[in-house]
Amino acid sequence: VQLVESGGGLVQAGGSLRLSCVASGDIFDISAMGWYRQAPGKERELVATISSGGSIYYADSVKGRFTISRDNAEKTLFLQMNSLKPEDTAMYSCAAQSAASGEYDYRGQGTQVTVTS
Hints:
Elements: E1 2-6, E2 9-12, E3 17-24, E4 30-38, E5 45-50, E6 56-58, E7 66-71, E8 76-81, E9 90-98, E10 106-107, E11 111-116
Parallel strand pairs: 2-11
Antiparallel strand pairs: 1-3, 3-8, 4-5, 4-9, 5-6, 7-8, 9-10, 9-11
């Protein structure tokens, strides 16, 4: 499985961005998908996940501002980010859970999001 993210960029605080992640390869092995982020000098943080059945999890830090969704027909995962804050600045990467292992075995290269104050 290959995951390719896009949609990152530079935005002012209060602005919005929409990240996309396109999956290819053995997509039948994918169950849940999610977004992680990592800021310089900080540990990687799980931002949001969505299961194959549509169950959703958000980190407390993004609840009410970010929305995760997936288009199974287009093999694409989205993250709509609104009311962005400087502390949202990070490298955002897409991840997919292997149905075989139950682990998030698949990761994309990431897309940079920078929020200025």
